[in-house]
Amino acid sequence: MNYNKVNNEVLSSLIGFIGLENVKTDGATLEKYSYDETPHGLRALPEVVLKPENTEQVSRILSLAEQNRIPVTFRGQGTGLSLGAVPTSGGMLVSFERMNRILEVDEDNLMAVVEAGVVLQDLRREVEKRGLFYPADPGERTSMVGGNVGTNAGGMNCVKYGKVRDYVLGLEAVLPSGKILNLGGKVVKRSTGYELIHLIIGSEGTLAAVTKVTLKLIKLPSLFITLYVPFNTLQGAIKSVSEILRDRITPTAIEFVERDVILETENRIGKKMPNHDSEAYLIIRLDGDNDSLLYDEGEKISGVCLRNGAVDVLVADTKESQNNIWDIRSAFYEGIVKNKDVEVIDTAVPRSKIPEFILEVKNISSRYGVRILCFGHAGDGNIHIHPQRNDLSVEEWSKKLPKIMEEVYRTSKAYGGTISGEHGIGLAKKKYLQIGLDEEQIRIMKEIKKIFDPNNILNPNKIFDIDDSTELVR
Ligand SMILES: Cc1cc2nc3c(=O)[nH]c(=O)nc-3n(C[C@H](O)[C@H](O)[C@H](O)COP(=O)(O)OP(=O)(O)OC[C@H]3O[C@@H](n4cnc5c(N)ncnc54)[C@H](O)[C@@H]3O)c2cc1C
């Protein structure tokens, strides 16, 4: 695909649209926006970084890019784990960091209207002051709402509350032509033609720029408790997950972790979990408004876990003790992934299949002689799988890793699962897309892309290539 460069004429138009101070071409800025959090991921410099302040400016930037056939990559906070925000085709990188206003918290309709660059933790803090809750909770709370919509982010609370998609009621989005779409709004239900909002959610910046989002809020639960449950066997921990759900208990979160992940995280961040001597752990959060109902559910969960070989069930009910556990949980990525030669695989399988799936992953680990550590959102079937290079030579690692990834994806598919539960495809998993989706589904997606973005300027070569230039694992 031939694209044009950002020349001086284009630069002066951009400066005219958004001001010299928001059009950056210096080396340090280009470098800063050249990567995301994908471990040992690719870096690629944009030609220019743009920081618009409002939708009108985004619209002018996009129509200029379209007229000049210049690729555009959108960026939230760059915490993505699939290289989605990496500007691999150069061109313009549009950062939403200045579009960070919470425009409205509508307490009558229980909704918030926010710009795409609002940081998740700021939104949560603002609504919680009013006794409201935005439960979509991807682990990285410095991520932005626009990025969360871009990836259809998930996180720990999906067991009870679902993904970002479940909270988006309205979107303002800009097409490459510069046209502004106003989709949905403050109505709770709608049955009026194709739901374009849901095409844009999870489209990883390939269909349109998301500039404003109307989000559903719920009442903030008044009580939270956390159970920290050590098990002597990994299978005991995993088996408990489907049994808890079968008992009709829906915790806010059920996270699974292996001991080595805890030990490495403790070393890295200097904090200690209440117990780190067992093979595997569940960390379970419950929320509600009724003390006795909540403790009753906690008792039932304890019963299930103890029947499956739990060593103990530790209950954290003060804010401080719960924060200690969840702070360490939030640091698992830092403990075992950041700055290491590790891959992050985020397959999701039906929850009843997790025990068999994990067993298969461990078999793959032994067959290839590669250590694979697991942790993640067991309650929604989305356990993150981390093959580690450790002592393998770079050559051995680069031969084994693609085979391991392929086997894990095929195993997930065989169990009725998907190749990405929440991080998206981006560039990192594009090669494997055809394991997850059949040809007809990919063909339809490509046709949709052509309607939204006929000149293929939006985040080209992410998710799939329009011209099939990458060889897919079939
Ligand atoms: C420690 C850690 C923990 C994490 N835990 C979770 C987790 O539990 N669950 C989860 O789902 N993810 C998790 N992630 C991944 C990441 O936080 C999410 O993918 C998040 O949604 C990315 O948001 P961002 O603002 O950083 O977006 P970016 O990484 O900047 O962008 C992500 C994608 O969205 C597109 N995009 C960004 N803004 C816009 C916009 N305004 N319009 C259109 N497209 C746009 C980009 O082009 C890109 O394709 C984690 C990451 C880290 C580092």
Task: Explain the layout of strands and helices.
Elements (H helix, E strand, L loop, with lengths): L7 H11 L4 E2 L2 H6 L15 E3 L4 H14 L3 E4 L16 E4 L6 E5 L4 E5 L4 H9 L3 E2 L11 H7 L6 H4 L6 E7 L5 E5 L11 H5 L8 E8 L1 E2 L3 E9 L2 H13 L6 E6 H11 L10 E9 L2 H17 L6 E3 L2 H12 L1 H5 L17 H15 L3 E6 L4 E6 L6 H21 L18 H4 L2 H14 L22
Parallel strand pairs: 2-4, 3-4
Antiparallel strand pairs: 1-2, 5-6, 6-10, 7-11, 8-9, 8-10, 12-14, 12-15, 13-14, 13-16, 16-17
Helix pairs in contact: 1-3, 8-10, 8-13, 13-14
Summarize the structure.
Helices cover 35% and strands 18% of the residues.
Key words describing this protein structure:
474 residues; alpha+beta; Uridine Diphospho-n-acetylenolpyruvylglucosamine Reductase, domain 2; Uridine Diphospho-n-acetylenolpyruvylglucosamine Reductase, domain 3; Alpha-Beta Plaits; 6-stranded antiparallel sheet; 18% strand; globular; binds flavin-adenine dinucleotide
